[in-house]
Amino acid sequence: MAEPLLTVDNLVAGYGRLEILHGVSLRVEAGKITGIIGPNGSGKSTLLKTIAGLLTPQQGRIRFQGVDITGLTPHEILRHGIMFMPQGQRIFPRLTVQENLQMGGYSLAQSAEVNQRMGAVFRLFPILQEKAHQLAGELSGGQQAMVSFGMAMMSRPRLILLDEPSAGLAPRIIQTVFERIAELNRGEGMTFLIVEQNIRKIMEVADTVYILDKGENVFSGRPEEMRSREELMALYLHL
Ligand SMILES: Nc1ncnc2c1ncn2[C@@H]1O[C@H](COP(=O)(O)OP(=O)(O)OP(=O)(O)O)[C@@H](O)[C@H]1O
Ligand SMILES: [Mg+2]
Fold first, then answer.
1. Are strands 33-37 and 208-213 parallel, antiparallel or unpaired?
2. How far is the CA of 85 from the centre of ligand 2 (A)?
3. Largest Cα–Cα distance of the chain, in whole Å?
4. Which of 89, 97, 93 is CA-nearest to residue 150?
5. Contact of 107 with 79, CB cutoff 8 Å
6. Which one of 11, 81, 83, 91 has the largest count of C-beta atoms within 10 Å of its C-beta?
7. Complete edge-to-edge strand list for the sheet that includes strand 208-213
8. Is the CB of 45 under 6 A from ligand 1?
9. Phi and psi (nearest 5°) for 53?
């Protein structure tokens, strides 16, 4: 079998001397959606931040497309094709929608490519084309979520790390965001690693789900398999 797109082996990481991840391992297959769930404070965001290069692991290895990327800077990791969308505010409120999207595509060499990607984002979220010249900070929460999603799409990443894309959004917008994720996955073969509190939604779209608890991986498998494990559902379904 081919090597996974992303392989995380025995990752130990945290903040200063505070160890949060105690040896986490994970595989992300190309063209698939991989979900990570787990209680608050279990280290989900820490894991994504470490993969994205914002934190340097104390131990362990991260391989992407067959290359060891452990310890590289966030910029280098982005250049390798990994785009990280952190939890919370992710847009530039005082720039227009169009300018925000251009920021997302700053790593693209050709302006023709920027325009082509922006066209693709506008097809995905037509409302953003209508609001292209408005300040992003003046849009609704759901529209701002579309802007940040669009920014992530601009650099044509090979892997997108999403930290709680549904947080703070109305149910209808959550529905749209997950539909777009599924569409990009099926249509463009885009690979996602998604941290989510919305278990129902992530179980709908994910090919594989990981459960992280207290900095350790306590389950990995298909959503159906997780659903059939009553003890897991009892412990983690209420998240
Ligand atoms: N910058 C930081 N400095 C020190 N400790 C931190 C920092 N950020 C997070 N932590 C701690 O690391 C632990 C894991 O945090 P993390 O944000 O990874 O959890 P999480 O699983 O993403 O939680 P949530 O579901 O609430 O987003 C927590 O105990 C948290 O207090
Ligand atoms: Mg988090």
1. parallel
2. 12
3. 53
4. 97
5. yes
6. 11
7. 82-85, 159-163, 191-195, 33-37, 208-213, 216-221
8. yes
9. 90, 5
As a whole number of angstroms, the distance between CA 69 and CA 195 comes to: 21
Q: Which residues surround ligand 2, an ion (CB under 5 A)?
A: 44-45
Q: Is the CB of 50 under 6 A from ligand 1?
A: no
pTM above 0.85, yes or no: yes
**In this structure, which residue's CA is closest to atom 25 in ligand 1?**
40
Task: Please state the domain extents for the chain.
Answer: 1-81+158-239, 89-156
Confidence of residue 94 (pLDDT cuts 50, 70, 90): very high
CA distances from 144 to 137, 138, 155, 231 (A): 7, 9, 18, 38
Average pLDDT over every residue of 140-162:
89
Instruction: Give the whole-angstrom CA distance, residue 166 versus residue 145.
Output: 9
Which residue's structure tokens are 């997780």? Answer: 226
CA atoms of 163 and 146, how far apart (whole Å): 14
Q: Does residue 16 line the site of ligand 1, with CB under 6 A?
A: no
**Residue 110, pLDDT above cutoff 90:** no
- The helix/strand/coil state of 235 is helix
Residue nearest atom 6 of ligand 1, based on CA coordinates: 15
At position 183, the amino acid (one-letter code) is E
Nearest to 84 by CA among 180, 175, 165, 170: 165
Using the CB atoms, write b or e for 81-99: b if 16+ within 10 Å: bbbbbbbeebbbeebbbbe
Could you tell me which of 38, 43, 13, 82 has the C-alpha nearest to residue 209? 38
Tell me: pLDDT of 89 over 70.
Answer: no
CATH architecture of structural domain 1-81+158-239: 3-Layer(aba) Sandwich (3.40)
